[in-house]
Amino acid sequence: MWRFIFLVGLLVSIKAQPGITYNVELFVRTPNLVTGMEFAPDGRLFYTEKETGNVRVVDAAGVLQRDPVIHFRVDALGERGLIGIALDPNFSENHYIWVYLTAPKVVDGVYKVWQQVIRFQEENNIGRDPLVLLEVPYESRDYSWHTGGRLRFDGEGYLYVSIGDNANAANAEDLTVYPGKIHRFEVIDDALHIPDDNPWANNSAFAIGLRNPIDFVFDPYSDSIFATENGPSCDDEINLIQAGHHYGWREGYNPISDCDDERPGEHPEYTYPLLHYTPTIAPVGIGVYTGDQIPVFEGNVFFCAWKDGQMRSLTLNSQRDQVVYEEIVDLRGAACHTAVLTGPDGALYFASSSGIYRLVSVD
Q1: CA 204, CA 211: separation in Å to the nearest integer?
Q2: How confident is the model over 239-252, as pLDDT tens digits?
Q3: Which pLDDT does position 15 carry in this prediction?
Q4: Residue 1 counted as domain residue
Q5: How far apart are CA 73 and CA 209, in angstroms?
Q6: In a domain, 3, yes or no
Q7: CATH (domain of 143)
Q8: How far is CA 221 from CA 240, 244, 306, 344, in A?
Q9: More exposed terminus of the chain, fewer Cβ within 10 Å: N or C?
Q10: Burial letters for 235-261: b for 16+ Cβ neighbours within 10 Å, e otherwise?
Q11: Who contacts 19 (Cβ-Cβ below 8 Å, separation ≥6)?
């Protein structure tokens, strides 16, 4: 799914619909593909590069530091690489940064690939003391899809991690393996533990039946989780993730005859999405706009689609469990590919394959 598309960034005024006017600005040109990004409380933007294994930092003025914060050796074949980043809930005190990546290792002379959650400490824009806290073997050296790869903390400090099915649909329903699920962990000292109130006893799984849930976000207005899901030739989805729910991906799923989302209600044992897309658009980064620069967008869910580079805005009902309006946001030459989030300045930031942009109010 990951590929390079180079676009020229412009500063333009646009109108998405009557009464909505804003600018699209290039915040920083990035030398390599951005996968995940997070703002620190002091306004710095940390982001990950898929191919290089570098974590980089941009200061609040939009100046990219020349040297990476830290470098990891990664296997970047296909969808592998350095994919996700999250700042610790206590970052202001401990300066911990968490990442999700695909690491190569040679075991008994055999090349193997592992998906890892790593925590490191940042000081003065330099990372040190990386610690592997979760390691999941990738089943095939040569097949390189469905890695998932985002991680986020909820308001109580629990860590959630999305892991794709590793191109094996049976994994999505198998509670004895990590792939094909969103997981929930409690961080205690230097280790990940299973919370007592997880939906399956003694298991880190929070939601199952997922093929490739690349990104997810906690909704600050409801504490719900919205996630992107990548289907085969059908059933790309935006899901409302709930504890203990099964989202339909399973062994034997036939993308020609099944396409569950085309026939809601046939399988009451599965949870159907808020939205689905056939043919597929490859939804990746997702975020909720909480800024004040474009008030009419406040509370909307935004996500990027890899295939067409478009940003979509979803207006929800008052219960925030249904989509009442969807629109494609006109980015006028920019593209939204991998990540989207609200900045501390109240702007909406998004990453294309060549830079990080933002939607800002018109002065």
Answers
A1: 17
A2: 999 999 999 999 98
A3: 39
A4: no
A5: 30
A6: no
A7: 2.120.10.30
A8: 14, 22, 27, 17
A9: C
A10: bbbbbbbeeebbbbbbeebeeeebbbb
A11: 296
